[in-house]
Amino acid sequence: MPELPEVASLAEFLRERAVGRTILAVDVVAFQALKTFDPPASALGGLTVTGVDRHGKFLDLDCDGLHLIIHLARAGWLRWKDDLSGAKPVRPGKGPLAVRVRLAPDEEGLAPGFELTEAGTQKRLAVYVTQDPESVPGIAALGPDPLADSFTAEVLKGIVGGSRTQIKGLLRDQKVLAGIGNAYSDEVLHAAKMSPFKIAATLTDAQVADLHEAIVTTLHDAVERARGVAAKDLKAEKKSGLRVHNRAGQACDVCGDTIREVSFADSALQYCPTCQTGGKPLADRRLSRLLK
Length: 292
Fold this sequence. Notes:
The chain starts with a helix and ends with a helix. A 4-stranded antiparallel β-sheet has the order 1-6-7-5, with no helix packed on it. The protein has helices spanning 4-18, 137-140, 153-160, 167-172, 182-191, 205-226, 234-241, 273-276, 285-291, and strands spanning 23-28, 49-55, 58-63, 66-71, 76-81, 97-103, 113-118, 126-130, 260-263, 268-271. By secondary structure, the protein is an alpha+beta fold. The longest helix has 22 residues, at 205-226.
């Protein structure tokens, strides 16, 4: 799933290539992906892309005041095309293509643009056309951005204080913090040397400070690594920079211990016992149920 660093990189990528260009057309192939109907997607035709922003995991293309909002969800992606002039029409329901955004031809006759695709059967990619980004429920409900200057250790202390939620779940809650998902929550907790099952309210002031530093540093470093990387290469770049996520069975780069995994119904977390849990493996709840 694209998280804050990848979405930030995609936003920068689109600023360099789409801002100042006129939208020729927006072709919606997967109709379930379009979550709004007024204004229609066709209203974007003829407008100029004047800016690209990010709200948590949401991409926001400002087109002369009308916003094209994109949430890539778990299996969605944005694929840039240098020339879509010869692209064949795609029938709804055929293949992974959900939306195609075509830009007007440049001086050389090339008509660039991008396609939104989604793999798998769970279609959660979402596209909105709106005059106000805050009208998108997911954006309106976002918590503070962890890379904003206003996100301080004191703000984080207020978030964790009184919460009986496990810290892993709290970090992933978009209403609590905007932009952190399954992968970077694993990375943050490894950097903070903290168990993913630790109850948020039990954190000491020192642990809150360490967690704040881990959040900011981990995300900032990931954004810097992704800066300038082509959209097609972002997934591989993200994977190469991860220390624990999706590395179960491999050696921890910090201590050499074997990275472990806890599986859930539709996801899994990874952690290092030596770095995070005092050397004690966490119970794999799915495996525990199978053994009963």
